[in-house]
Amino acid sequence: MRIHTELVDGPLALRMRRLDAARERTTGRQILTLPLPAARLAGGFIAPATQEILYPAIRQALEAGGYEDIDKVSELPGMPVAVLSALRDWWDMEVPATLPDNARLRDFTLLERRVRGALPPGMLSPPDLVKAVLERLPFAPKLIAAIAVQDVPDIKAVWRPLMQALCDVVPVRWIGSQHSGRAYRH
User: Fold this and answer.
1) 145 in the same domain as 55
2) How far apart are CA 122 and CA 124, in angstroms?
């Protein structure tokens, strides 16, 4: 039996593609969102940090205090949700090498460092997960085999180095949605 990995975009697509595979009675197909094969490649006991793990780490980081700008709002009820949303956006984007120097950004980088430090062993933020995977790329052919990126409109910046590196060690093909309406011009 040959295995292949199908990457989809988000939890709904994950459930729908798995349901389709079950109805088709296919074998050897792994249907995953991008963090899941990354965790598999990073090592057996590695997992992407989930919302359930991040919330306590965020609360702990906020309670530590010592912030220049956000101390006055750090105890508000919606702060953990706002921080989680900001962290996800921060981790998903390509952070510029030089950032403006201001109190809020210094607070955010301190908060982000504290949250990453408070994660339990084996739970990694997306940037740490990508770094761990890039060190274990030779295992990719055995663990995930061929990859089909199915109906994913864009790969977030944090995952692009991983996808580029995977193209060197396993076959990767991108299958766009028939409903995307995107015209490609040469």
Assistant:
1) no
2) 6
- Residue 135 shares a structural domain with residue 162: yes
User: In this structure, is residue 184 part of a structural domain?
Assistant: no
Q: Which domain holds residue 77?
A: 50-118
Single pTM value for the model: 0.81
Q: Using CA atoms in the order 68, 74, 78, 83, what is the torsion angle rounded to 10 degrees?
A: 50
Count of domains observed in the chain: 2
Give the C-alpha separation, 184 to 174, whole Å. Answer: 14
* Contact residues for 14 (Cβ-Cβ < 8 A; gap 6+): 8, 31, 32, 33
DSSP sequence for 63-77: HT---SSSTTTTTST
pLDDT tens-digit readout, 146-186: 899 988 888 899 999 999 999 999 999 988 776 555 544 33
> In this structure, what token pair is assigned to residue 49?
């940090």
